[in-house]
Amino acid sequence: MANSGNALSSLASVVSGNVDTTDGSSELSIFDVTHDSRQTGEGTLFVAIRGMAVDGHLFVPEAVGRGVTAVCVDHRLETEVPQIIVEDTRMALGPLAAAVHDDPSRDMIVVGVTGTNGKTTVTHYVESLASSAGVPTGLIGTIHTRIGNVTLDAVHTTPEASDFQRLLARMRDSGSKLVATEVSSHALELGRVKATHFAVAAFTNLSQDHLDFHGDMDRYLSAKRRLFDEHDVATAVINIDDPGGVLIAESFKGKLLTVGLSGQCRHSDVRTTVEGTTFTLDTPWGSAALRVPVIGRFNLDNALLAVACSLAAGVSFDDVASGLPDLAGVPGRYEIVSGEDPITVIVDYAHTPEGIAEAIVAARELGGKRVVAVVGAGGDRDRDKRPLMGEAASSADLVVITSDNPRSEQPEAVVASIVAGLDSSSVSLIEIDRRTAIRRAVADAADGDIVLVLGRGHEPMQDIGGNRVPFDDRQVAREALRLVRSSADLDTNSGSMDT
Q1: 3-state secondary structure 91-143
Q2: Class of residue 186 by CB neighbours under 10 A (exposed 0-12, middle 13-18, buried 19+)
Q3: Angle at the Cα of 145 (from 142 to 146), degrees rounded to 5?
Q4: SS3 of 445, please?
Q5: pTM over 0.85
Q6: Rounded to an integer, what distance in angstroms lies between the CA atom of residue 64 and that of residue 366?
Q7: Which of 158, 173, 209 shows the shortest CA–CA distance to 383?
Q8: Strand-strand pairing, 232-239 and 70-73
Q9: Tens of pLDDT along 405-464?
């Protein structure tokens, strides 16, 4: 659908703004909205938002120099281009972008997923189930954005509002009928999904994370609740096994679909192995005994939530049931990287206390001899959760504490704060260098053991002192396995020469 442009005056009315012009030209046509002055040009409206470090109003002169048609500001500026003046430019960005792109979320089924853990997995599973049912899909999230078969890099879990609406418009114009998107708590607080219609909005769970941004758990939950309290949601899909989910379900005023042990969508008769999980699925649309290629009950919970989202979005029960055995794996989410090796190595994104605990429990359920967990924490982020991460990791037979993305912090300081939470009876090693830590964990493991490499998942780069260097846990773990095998082969060959 070609963008025919919107008159500046009509855009101003969308956000209750006042148009200020030097020549009275309030009917200029706007074809795109951006918060990035580098993307401006003729036909563009630049919205100057106040960031945590930089005020976008400082970049108005650059936008004008690039030929911007108009700007949106929170106070009148001395500039030659027309300006829309609003109270809060950040909250105006989404509605302006949605209006310019003719409200793309109204032309598709948008499934938004929020919660601490599981957003990425659930959205990927929804995309997989819808695609297997023949529905053209789009995906927006932490790992990447996907429009049909085209994959784009992701910058934020949920893009800034202008980028988000532009992506939705591109998906609509390319023929997408269903879009699965992660909705982070940051995005909700910062208005990144404002003016978006959600056919389905889902809640996974709540546990400690991002308190450096939100302050405390009450405000963190309040941020998640904004998706259901302040946005246009047709159906809410809520995990009521989580206390936060119960609160959301109790207050939601629209159509509600519950997931959990006592929910409308639930699973039973669960058996899990390294090959996958079998279970019985019960929903208002039907029941079936199924097998899914996912490991661990927490991942089965993610699959169940994706089932509920898909059913609420209009995918038939038969299509969902036939699509579950072929669920596409999610990069770096409880991903087995060891192949047929007698040591099982799993890479996962778990970086919260609850996520670490669940990953270890899932490994126990696989029946391995020992569980070895490699754990680190990101620098410049929620410091209070680090000892709790150490406490959670203590349930492994061996804990290797290392760095994650130290960013501007000293890795030793981050590691020390994790170690402070370790149980006094736990067996642990400290190795600051992450590559060496993974190698030590694999080398220490015996046949039948399970090694969990936790915290970074799919991430291809490590941030050390502001320098981003290539580092993929999956590749490093495979290298470690090759080294162990090579060493074992050398020992075997040496032994065969003894006389």
Answers
A1: HHHHHHHHHHCCCHHHHCEEEEEECCCCHHHHHHHHHHHHHHCCCCEEEECCC
A2: middle
A3: 140
A4: coil
A5: yes
A6: 60
A7: 209
A8: unpaired
A9: 999 999 999 999 999 999 998 999 999 999 999 999 999 999 999 999 999 999 999 999
Determine contact, residues 189/224, Cβ cutoff 8 Å.
no
Q: Which domains does the chain have, with CATH numbers?
A: 6-100 (3.40.1390.10), 104-326 (3.40.1190.10), 335-487 (3.90.190.20)
CB distance 68 to 8 below 8 Å = no
Q: pLDDT per residue over 155-175, tens digit each?
A: 778 899 999 999 999 999 999
Q: Which of 285, 201, 281 is nearest to 245 (CA)?
A: 201
- What is the distance between the alpha carbons of residues 228 and 238, in angstroms, rounded to a whole number? 10
Distances (CA, A) of 202 to 122, 169, 205, 238, 427: 9, 22, 10, 6, 39
How far apart are the two ends of the chain, measured CA to CA in Å? 79
Percentage helix, strand, coil, to 5, in the chain?
35, 25, 40
Report d(CA 183, CA 113) in Å as an integer.
Answer: 6
